[in-house]
Design goal:
This protein is mainly α and about 70 residues long. Helices cover about 55% and strands about 0% of the residues. It has 4 helices and no strands. It is extended.
């Protein structure tokens, strides 16, 4: 939270509606969950194998870059 405040990020917590009787899609949550689902196809991103955070960040960039490249070419 301190890092987010330092970088001027706005964090919005989307709470579940307790009195809602059925399932309801929460705003913007599915985008994050879908992206994490795509990244789990990479074995190195399923678990936290990396010792350094910059290597882990680079692997995320490589994975998303290849995913987007595949979508553009197909």
């Amino acid at each position: 939270m301190d890092k987010a405040a330092f970088l001027d990020f706005i964090i919005e917590v989307v709470r579940r509606i307790d009195n809602e009787p059925s399932f309801k899609v929460l705003p913007q949550r599915w985008v994050v969950e879908r992206t994490f689902g795509w990244m789990t196809t990479w074995r190195r991103l399923v678990r936290d194998y990396e010792q350094r955070i910059d290597v882990s960040e680079t692997m995320i960039h490589v994975a998303t870059g290849i995913l987007f490249l595949r979508r553009v070419t197909h």
